[in-house]
Structure formats: structure tokens, C-alpha cells
């Protein structure tokens, strides 16, 4: 079994701590999950402070800086994906679903409303499942002599899926001021979930999926979001393009193929039309 996953993640477990040192992995950490098993206190994230309590879960993305300040004895588990894990994705060990995992956390990387990074769960069951998996991964990982890579790999995949699903739920409910069971939210969730399948995002397919007339679904979408269906889909794709340009070493042709553009030229023209600059210029601006 591949060991790449072990070399590119760090899992730390702290029991009954009253003081936490500054995270030494910040400069090489790409994505991090922190679960507070017990204790109360505050966590300062990028200069802003929020409380933590038992069973709080936080997620951090590149450039996030946080400091934990316990008020009571605190126990935590932290899973840190290092930057090397998602770099050079095209050359990663084929047995590791790195690209699939990257897709799972895209919603978090693109999240603007989730500034303080505390996870909000749609159901108590999702929180319980995630906590159980985090603890299981920590036990396996920290038992260096006999860890089971199969358990670690598959548990991490489910963890990332649960986080992505609940981030999507949070973002959508914050963006769309309607009931969480509203049809517009369902449409947005469906678009995000199927962004890599152009056939499922055609007006005809969407209309069939949500039992609407072909000529009405676009009107309905624009009425509730103030943006056309076509523009929303393209804008979301271009957000994913930006994410890949910023966080991976994928070639433009690979990005174009993955997101359904004809070729890199088509991608570049669309990017320039919507963003006002070429892909190369954007890449240079973030380097």
C-alpha cells in the first residue's frame, strides 16, 4: 500500500492541556481539521476570536493562523494535510485519490462566508460520524508500528466528504435566504455536486431533475439569486479554476479538460472575459 499519505499528513493529539504552543506547521500546512474533545476556551483565528466547547470542530485553509487559549483543561486532535499532499497532483501515486479529495475541499477553499472556520453541521449524526472517524484515524496514525493505511485512507476520504457536505449546507443557507429545504438551494447544491458533468447541468437536465419547464428554470434561478443560471455555472467553474491555479501544479490543459472547457485556449478566453485578465496574468499575481 502507498505510504505517500502518511508522509504528507501530520496528526497530533493533545490530552488535558492548559497551554498550546504556536502551530509549527503553519507555513507548510495546506488544510487542517481540529476537533476539541473536551475543554472550553477561545481560539483566535486571523485576529478574530471565537469560543470553543467540547465537540467543536474547526477547519483551516492555507494562510490561516490560529492560537488556542484554554480556559479549562483541553483535549484536541488535529489532522494537518501538508502543502506537499496536494501539489503535483498529476504525478501523485495513482492509488491515492488525491484529486478526488481536492474536489471535496474546494467548497471550503472557496468559502467566503465561513470566515471563522467553525464547522456547523446539518445534523447531529454528521457531527458524531466525523468525530468518530477523526478519533479512529488518530489512533491508527499514532500507532506507528502497526497502523493500517487502508483504514486511514478511507476514513480520511469520508471525513473530507462530511466536511464538504456540511460546508456546502452552511454556505448555501447563508447565501440563499429561504428555508433549507427550498428548491433553489437544492438546485445550487446539485450544480456544485455535478460541476464536473456538463450533461447534468444543461437546462434540459436541470429542468427534468427539478420538475420544471425548460424555459422556466433559468427564470426561476435568476429571480432567486439575481444571476443567470449559465453565468452562475461559469462563475463557479472559474472559482474552481482559481483554486487549482493557486493550490496545485496542474497544467492549463489538465484544468480545462477537468472542468469541461474545449481546450486551454477556450479556458483562457472565458477566464479573461469574466475575470478581466488572462490565466497567466492571474497566475503571476498569486505567485
From TrEMBL:
Keywords attached to this entry: DNA-binding, Transcription, Transcription regulation
HTH araC/xylS-type domain segment(s): 185-285
Pfam families recorded: AraC_binding (PF02311), HTH_18 (PF12833)
Entry GO MF terms: DNA-binding transcription factor activity; sequence-specific DNA binding
PANTHER family the UniProt entry points to: ARAC-FAMILY TRANSCRIPTIONAL REGULATOR (PTHR43280:SF34)
The protein, known as: AraC family transcriptional regulator
